[in-house]
Structures are given as structure tokens and as C-alpha cells.
TrEMBL record:
The lineage of its organism: Archaea, Methanobacteriati, Methanobacteriota, Stenosarchaea group, Halobacteria. This is Uncharacterized protein. It comes from the Archaea.
Length: 123
């Protein structure tokens, strides 16, 4: 299971590195495009750690600096760190979890029964 946890963490790291978060501006905001001001959908792209990013959310969750998030996630049990990180991401309204990683949940195996030697003799 540690291998699956590490694979999911790698996908999370790729999502952190590729993150480009769109944050809404106020209702009266407008963006400029070229020499003429034209009103477009009020949004601004936030990248490189500005605003509420996955890196910032995880830094707050784990109590580390944003630059230390990946090193922190690599330390300790990968499945436990991954599950905690995914819970924090899913509970945050500002970001969206990628489909390439997720929580790892252990399912109990089904009970298996077998007949004892005495039961086999009676059959």
C-alpha cells in the first residue's frame, strides 16, 4: 500500500506544481485587454503561491511553511499523509481536487472459512 500512497502523492505534487487557481474579483471589477478597456468576466489568475492555493491550504493543515509542504508530505507514512491532505483539499472551497489522486481506504477482506479435518471426515 505504501507504493500506491507514493504514486498518489506524486500526482498530488504534480497538481501542486501545475496549479493555476482562478479567483473571483469584486462585482465592479473589469479587466483590460489591449489599449481599449473592455469588461470581461471578473476573474484573475493566481499562480506561484499567491492567494489560497493547494500548497497554502496544506501548509496551514500541517503547520509548516508553504515551501516545506512537499518535503513534509514525503516524510512519515505516505498513506496517512495523503489521506489527510486529500481531506483538507476537499474541505477547502477555493480549490478543486484532481482526479489523479485520492484517499486510500482499506477494506476488510471477506471472512474465509474452511472445514476442519473432523468435518471433512463426516462429509
Amino acid at each position: 500500500m505504501a507504493e500506491e500512497g507514493e504514486a498518489n502523492l506524486d500526482a498530488l505534487f504534480a497538481h501542486i506544481d501545475d496549479e493555476l487557481d482562478v479567483t473571483a474579483l469584486s462585482e465592479d471589477a473589469a479587466e483590460r485587454d489591449g489599449p481599449q478597456a473592455r469588461v470581461t468576466a471578473p476573474s484573475v489568475a493566481v499562480a506561484g503561491g499567491a492567494g489560497r492555493t493547494i500548497r497554502n491550504i496544506l501548509a496551514a493543515e500541517f503547520g509548516v511553511e508553504p515551501e516545506q509542504v512537499i518535503d513534509f508530505l514525503r516524510s512519515g507514512d505516505p498513506v496517512d499523509r495523503l489521506n489527510t491532505a486529500v481531506e483538507a483539499i476537499e474541505s477547502a472551497e477555493e480549490v478543486t481536487k484532481s482526479e489523479y489522486y485520492g484517499q486510500i481506504v482499506f477494506v476488510r477482506p471477506a471472512y474465509r472459512y474452511r472445514l476442519t479435518e473432523l468435518a471433512m471426515e463426516l462429509v
